[in-house]
Task: structure prediction
Amino acid sequence: MGHSRDDPRGALVRPYAVTRGRTEPTQAIAIEAVLVTSPHGLQEAQFTERDRRTIAMLCSERPQSMAEIAAYLGMPLGVGRVLVSDMVSAGILILHTTEDSGDLGQRIDVLERVLVGLRRL
Amino acid sequence: MYWKGYSLDFADSERSSAAPAGPITSAKIVIAGGFGVGKTTMVGAVSEITPLTTEAMMTVAGIGLDDPSKVPNKMTTTVAMDFGRITISQDLILYLFGTPGQTRFWFMWDEICRGAIGAVVLVDTRRVEDSFAPIDFFESRSIPYLVAVNCFDGAPYYEMEEIREALTINRNVPLLPCDARKRESAKQILIDVVRHALSLLHVERARASAGMS
Result:
């Protein structure tokens, strides 16, 4: 999983220190994709490092998008994405689906619900 | 944007999660336009949270190259994008993403726009040409979009049809005036984007079922 020592990406980009130099997430996560802490995620996160604990706390309060997590933790999107994808793999976070992943009928349904919600604002 | 004032208190970590247990769907609408046209203002007018900023890093020397890691003396730059949130219901969240104003950050546009319901191109009548690039982008990616003319105080007034001609946009692209500072106006623009995107999906569905019979 880790990049080799002579891979320049880890060395040049200091913020990636929190991911031990890895810049590639284990899975694709859209900026608007929402994450929720799993039922046992908070407890499991207690034994990880600080950023992961903060993310687990944040996503247990209410669902948060990938972009919100990166913004609240003050880390670049790419760094946040590596951490979050690790936490999804570890079962601490649950990754939810985005509108565009549905079929045509499901997408029409979602858009109609968005429309109703916007009109209510 | 750093997030402060959050204490790490695990004393109550036994409590049940406040987040819903079932599936949640999220969607996004993109707000595009030139620098200073009011994108973040519009996001802030309807967002339930103060607009947040997230940053993406990019190797400057690597833009447009197949393998950026081969470039010596690279420099990294950060591109900021502002966004807001509207929780429609417990299981449906809408995000509003503003694009970076400078068009040299095109590489971020794919990331921001991929999978979007639709987009708003905000226009300042004093700098109509700033909206050419976003319009080209959404047309080339077949992303449903509308054009909203932000009515700045003191900006020259044009008829909507004059603006449509200046932008050379198709009749079927909605074009309307707005005030990005006003919640009701921003809300109406979002409603119009979703309606426009919905009508295109309905056409797609009709075509699909016609093809099957």
